[in-house]
TrEMBL record:
Coiled coil region boundaries: 289-337
Record-level GO cellular component terms: cytoplasm
Keywords, ordered alphabetically: Coiled coil
This protein's name: Axonemal dynein light chain domain-containing protein 1-like
Cited InterPro entries: Axonemal_dynein_LC_domain (IPR052845), Axonemal_dynein_light_chain (IPR019347)
Pfam families: Ax_dynein_light
Length: 434
């Protein structure tokens, strides 16, 4: 109720309320709000239903704005410029008529637009606030905090609405661009999706407001634009999903490529290791080949030396045989001569004894003794010579036996090398093949 000093004066409450709102543009106390005029229903609606809702066929044409509105904060389920209705958890709740003249005012917000509240343009005209009839299909709203909302307007039928909407879109895009520059995601794909999400939200908001403005003049155009918007939203969502799937496939492909590169690197390392081992095997093979060739040359030289030594030994043996035969013949001749001389001496001694004197016999005996002594020395000399020849012959035989053993060991070594090369020939062939 108004103060007592003002109640006694004849001043309309609407004028006092307008002056108060003009002086202070802030929220008005509930006791200063204008009384809400409600007609008591008597079996009929308090006011006639708008013609757009009078026919069910026409009402169904605006269902695209009612059934599937786009909302960011839970708003948008009711279209205020067509009818006034409240939804709570998906259930419609009708306004209940109250008895009395003054109804407390609750601040209301425009719920038929997605444009942020910071871009709303309001104006105070200094006149009485809007009156609202709380029926199901009304097109009138109580203005929020008794201010007239210029943008977004209840009746967007002027060019200024489009210009203001364009400015709002430019401002929102500029802010989104600054935010996108500050945003640093883990990857470029996350940053791109963040940009798409921001811009899609802005375009969706502007498109929704544009559809609302068009639907006031022509519902068919609004319905067509709503279908186009839904198609574009689905297409952009599908593009975003395809981009995410493509990005996942690309990341998977990168992981696979990385694993393939790792496998190739490991394979390259294995090839390098095998190449090094092959080089070592080749070097070892070359070394063994050189050693085998050297052993073969040494063996050939040893065979030549053995053959040469064998020929020398054979020649020495032949020479020794000839020398022995000659010495044996000499000994036989000396023995024959000794026998002759003995017989001659005996005959001479007999003759001397029989014919000459003892002096001659003694002289002859002395000579015979000296000859016998010399022949004895010759015999000893030949015996020593024969023993030395026998010793040299034994030494030659020992050398021949040692040479034979060496040749046998060389032969065994050659057989072993031939067996080794025969067993390892396939390894050499594989190394040459690599």
């Amino acid at each position: 109720p108004l103060p007592t000093s003002l109640q006694n004066e004849f001043i309309p409450e609407e004028v006092l309320l307008s002056l108060t709102n003009a002086a202070n543009a802030g929220p008005c106390p509930e006791n200063l709000l204008p009384p809400k005029k409600i007609k008591t229903p008597k079996g009929t609606l308090p006011r006639s239903v708008d013609h757009v809702w009078h026919n069910p066929v026409r009402r169904n044409k605006f269902k695209y704005l009612i059934d599937h509105p786009v909302s960011l904060t839970g708003a948008g389920r009711d279209i205020s410029f067509l009818y006034d209705v409240k939804y709570v958890k998906g259930e419609t709740r009708e306004s209940v008529a109250r008895d009395g003249i003054i109804v407390p005012h609750k601040p209301k917000k425009l719920t038929d637009t997605l444009i942020p509240e910071e871009f709303h343009i309001v104006s105070n005209t200094g006149v009485s606030g809007l009156e609202c009839f709380d029926d199901k299909y009304t097109t009138l709203l109580t203005d929020s905090e008794n201010r007239l909302l210029l943008f977004p307007s209840m009746k967007p039928n002027k060019r200024i609405e489009v210009v203001q909407l364009n400015d709002v879109m430019d401002t929102m895009l500029e802010r989104a661009g600054v935010e996108n520059q500050e945003y640093t995601g883990p990857t470029k794909m996350h940053k791109l999706l963040h940009i798409l999400k921001k811009e899609q939200t802005i375009y969706n908001t502007v498109f929704h407001e544009l559809i609302r403005q068009v639907s006031v003049d022509c519902a068919d155009r609004g319905e067509l634009l709503s279908k186009i918007r839904e198609r574009y939203v689905q297409m952009l969502d599908q593009i975003a999903r395809q981009m995410i799937d493509f990005y996942k496939d690309m990341v998977t492909q990168r992981v696979m490529d990385q694993r393939i590169l790792e496998e190739l690197y490991n394979f390259k390392n294995v090839i390098e290791e095998l190449t090094r081992e092959l080089c070592l095997v080749r070097a070892h093979d070359i070394k063994l080949t050189k050693e085998a060739e050297k052993a073969h040359r040494d063996l050939a030289q040893a065979l030549l030396d053995a053959e040469k030594n064998a020929r020398i030994v054979e020649e020495y043996h032949d020479l020794y045989t000839l020398q022995r035969e000659r010495m044996e013949s000499d000994i036989k001749q000396l023995m024959a001569e000794r026998d002759i001389w003995s017989s001659a001496t005996y005959e001479l001694s007999v003759k001397v004894v029989s014919s000459e004197i003892n002096f001659l016999f003694v002289l002859l005996a002395k000579r015979l003794y000296l000859n016998e002594k010399s022949w004895n020395n010759y015999t000893k000399h030949f015996i020593v010579l024969l023993s030395s020849k026998d010793t040299s012959d034994l030494e030659v035989e020992r050398n021949e036996e040692a040479t034979r053993e060496r040749l046998q060991s060389v032969k065994d070594g050659l057989v072993k090398w031939q067996q080794f090369f025969r067993n390892n020939s396939w390894v050499l062939q594989e190394s040459c093949f690599f």
